[in-house]
Design brief:
Elements (H helix, E strand, L loop, with lengths): L3 H14 L6 H14 L1 H4 L16 E7 L5 H8 L7 E4 L27 E2 L16 E2 L8 H4 L9 H9 L7 H11 E3 L16 E5 L7 H10 L14 E4 L1 E5 L2 E2 L2 H6 L8 E4 L2 E9 L4 E9 L2 E13 L2 H11 L2 E2 L1 H6 L6 E2 L11 E3 L3 E3 L16 H4 L2 H10 L12 E5 L13 E6 L11 H5 L3 H8 L7 E8 L7 E3 L10 E3 L6 H18 L2 H4 L4 E2 L15 H10 L1 E3 L31 E3 L14 H18 L10 H6 L7 H8 L10 H6 L1 H9 L13 H5 L2
Parallel strand pairs: 1-2, 1-13, 2-10, 5-6, 13-25, 14-15
Antiparallel strand pairs: 3-4, 6-8, 7-18, 8-9, 11-12, 12-13, 16-20, 16-24, 17-20, 17-23, 18-19, 19-20, 21-22
Helix pairs in contact: 1-2, 2-13, 4-19, 7-19, 16-18
Pfam families: GMC_oxred_C, GMC_oxred_N
Protein name: Glucose-methanol-choline oxidoreductase N-terminal domain-containing protein
Organism: Brassicogethes aeneus (Rape pollen beetle)
Length: 705
């Protein structure tokens, strides 16, 4: 009889596979082979212990809402202090075996691990999508978007962070945040290990993807031919091209759950509650202090109190929604839905930014002379979704399962609208040996919500042919969207108005980017493939001449895509900014003991993928929280010492004294901190104590996922 892990993993796998049609047999074979041959992926002994509902305590020191890219980091770093009891709440389950495999990341979109948001229809975007609505994947799983994203590790540009600081956010300049990028990082790309811009020994491993197509060298040669350098885009300069860097460990996904939570999952002062939804933050209307949360787990409700802080790390959509439902947001909007207004904060849900992308820029090509069929020049579903791929993966730890065809090579360039002499690109490229035709409509069409008639007219004629795509992304959009409540229920999804191309400057930048991408496809390096653009035009764009500005503009407004980077909806800013939701310490303005720590606090979106910046924000926030409570540099991650110091009962008297906290201001009490150093050192020589108890892990708990 299969164990509980096999049953639950098979159940999740089956639900996911049934949405994929032709890939069912491949996925089922992959799953069974992984169970039998890849215990490193199952990692049962280090899986997170889900705290049962009846074991949740009434009080914790810190409650972290959201176990995603930021929340996982916070749970680890805050629980380094053995005197603090931490509760991490996550609406989804733990990771499953599929999430580890780079090739299958598109399968996770529109799955049970995805909240499955959609944008509201607009006049300037998503015209080729069903009902004019773009899909917006957001993770509903431990590790958050680091568990279902494309694993791309991009920090952003020095000028992004210097601009944050110039806005009135001290401590957020590039020189201030670089140490936090390095703190997390374990750089495993050999040529960058000793570089001053990178760290080693951190929990988050960064590698090149293990498998590449035979087309990848030509992509890089094409970029070089146009004058671009092949360089480390996370180093001193960003303008140029590279094989994609990924949050990977031994070729497999390294989510923040794997990197930060699994190593600390046995700490006695950390509880993790999965499948748990927070309905609202409790804010005292008289003291304006966050005191706890109301949560729901498997139908049961409970109020849990935070003796120190509630921290929202639910992401750029859910964090502002929770703020609004808790009474913090635009006054008129909250009153429309009968929400009692505690703090009128007009910036909540506003300032929505995303890296808008133009999909569908597809090129056909022919195999070069001498090709014998052994190498993959592009992703072709019948060839890749084959038993041989599974066997290479399970037996040799090699092959296309370690491949990211949707972004094999990435690049950053500047259009004529950016300062050409400055290293601050306004365009990012994904060069992909993949297209909506090469996957038979299995991944791309489904992920973006492409209308059936559009797919049939434009991409189906090229099904399973040799194709590649170049995806163009606008890095610093001028357009701003917003989020709005649908009603006053947390179970209802927030309404998303991305306002793509609402500012016409974004469309002009996109057109220039598409034209430059087209040049990449027609270099001498690509000539041997007899490259030609897909001759089938998007419905609604037929009247425009191919390669014309009008055609690219039309395509951009039809085949509009998110690259899953919504940010800025609870932005950080100084007191002088009325739209700033949090201050530079990430504290919610007007509410004590409440912070937001995720990508919603970014005042401006960064240049590149946003997962690495989100992890950095959480690393920095953890230090700020420790500093504000007077314990920075007093505790560090040492699993052996932590285990020794995690038994018995803690003294609340010592606990409160040592933290040096002023109840009224919520700021560090310098005198108390200085006076308590000796006392703190004395206590550290003894075994810290805790009120928390954990039931030892049972085998079926370890096997659950």
């Amino acid at each position: 009889m299969a164990d509980l892990h096999s049953q639950m993993n098979l159940y999740s796998m089956t639900r996911m596979a049934l949405t994929l049609g032709p890939g069912l047999g491949f996925l089922m074979y992959l799953h069974s082979s992984t169970l039998n041959a890849r215990p490193d992926i199952l990692d049962r002994e280090n899986r997170i212990h889900d705290t049962p509902f009846h074991q949740l305590m009434d009080h914790y020191d810190f409650i972290v809402v959201g176990g995603g890219s930021a929340g996982s980091v916070l749970a680890n770093r805050l629980s380094e202090n053995p005197f603090w009891n931490i509760l991490l709440l996550e609406a989804g389950p733990d990771e499953i075996s599929l999430t580890d495999m780079p090739l299958l990341f598109p399968v996770l979109q529109r799955s049970p691990l995805d909240w499955q948001y959609q944008t509201e229809a607009g006049e300037t975007y998503c015209k080729a999508m069903k009902e004019g609505r773009c899909n917006w994947p957001r993770a509903k799983v431990l590790g958050g978007c680091s568990t279902i994203n494309a694993m791309l590790y991009i920090r952003g540009n020095r000028r992004d962070y210097d601009r944050w600081e110039e806005l009135g956010n001290p401590g957020w300049g590039y020189d201030d945040v670089l140490p936090y990028f390095k703190k997390s990082e374990d750089m495993r790309i050999e040529e960058y290990k000793e570089d001053k811009y990178h760290g080693t020994g951190g929990p988050l491993t960064v590698e090149y993807f293990r498998y590449h197509s035979a087309m990848a060298p030509s992509f890089l040669e094409s970029a070089k031919e146009l004058g671009y350098s092949i360089l480390d885009v996370n180093g001193e300069y960003q303008t140029g091209f590279t094989l994609s860097h990924g949050t990977l460990r031994d070729g497999l996904r390294c989510s923040t759950a794997k990197a930060f939570l699994r190593p600390c999952c046995n700490r006695e002062n950390l509880h993790v509650s999965l499948l748990t939804t927070v309905e609202k933050v409790i804010i005292d209307p008289e003291s304006y202090q966050a005191t706890g949360v109301i949560l729901k787990k498997l139908g049961a409700k409970k109020t849990i109190y935070a003796d120190r802080e509630v921290i929202l790390s639910a992401g750029s959509l859910a964090s502002p929604q929770l703020l609004m439902l808790s009474g913090v947001g635009p006054k008129d909007h909250l009153e429309d839905f009968g929400v009692d207004v505690i703090v009128d904060s007009p910036g909540v849900g506003m300032n929505l930014q995303d890296h808008v992308a133009m999909g569908g820029q597809v090129y056909l090509f022919e195999m070069p002379d001498g090709y014998e069929g052994d190498e993959n020049y592009c992703f072709n579903l019948p060839k890749v979704f084959a038993p041989d791929t599974v066997d290479k993966f399970t037996q040799k730890k090699d092959g296309p399962m370690y491949w990211l065809p949707v972004c094999e090579v990435m690049g950053f360039v500047s259009t004529k609208y950016a300062n050409q002499s400055d290293d601050w690109p306004d365009i990012q490229y994904f060069m992909a040996p993949y297209s909506d035709g090469s996957d038979g409509g299995l991944f791309g069409r489904r992920a973006v919500n492409l209308a059936d008639d559009v797919y049939s007219a434009v991409y189906e004629p090229n099904i399973y042919k040799e194709t590649f795509s170049i995806l163009t992304l606008v890095m610093r959009p001028y357009s701003r969207g917003r989020l709005m409540l649908k009603n006053n229920k947390i179970d209802s999804k927030i309404l998303i108005y991305p306002n793509y191309y609402g500012d016409p400057r974004d469309l002009k930048i996109m057109v220039e980017g598409a034209k430059m991408a087209n040049k990449l496809a027609y270099t001498k390096a690509m000539k041997k493939y007899n490259v030609r653009i897909n001759p089938y035009k998007l419905p609604g764009c037929e009247e425009h001449e191919t390669f014309s500005d009008d055609y690219w503009a039309c395509q951009a407004q039809h085949y509009t895509m998110t690259i899953y980077h919504p940010t800025g909806t609870a932005k950080m800013g100084p007191d002088s900014d009325p739209m700033a939701v949090v201050d530079p310490r990430l504290k919610v303005r007007g509410v004590k003991n409440l912070r937001v720590v995720d990508c919603s606090v970014l005042p401006y979106i960064t240049t590149g993928n946003t997962n690495a910046p989100t992890i950095m924000v959480a690393e920095k926030a953890a230090d700020m929280i420790k500093e504000d409570w007077g314990v920075l540099h007093k505790y560090y991650d040492s699993s052996e010492e932590h285990e020794d110091n995690a038994s018995g009962e803690k003294s609340e008297e010592n606990h409160d004294q040592l933290d040096g906290y002023e109840e009224v201001t919520g700021k560090p009490n310098a005198d108390l901190i200085e006076g308590s150093v000796k006392a703190k050192e004395e206590v550290l020589r003894e075994k810290p104590t805790t009120l928390m108890k954990k039931t030892p892990k049972r085998q079926k708990d370890m096997d659950y996922w």
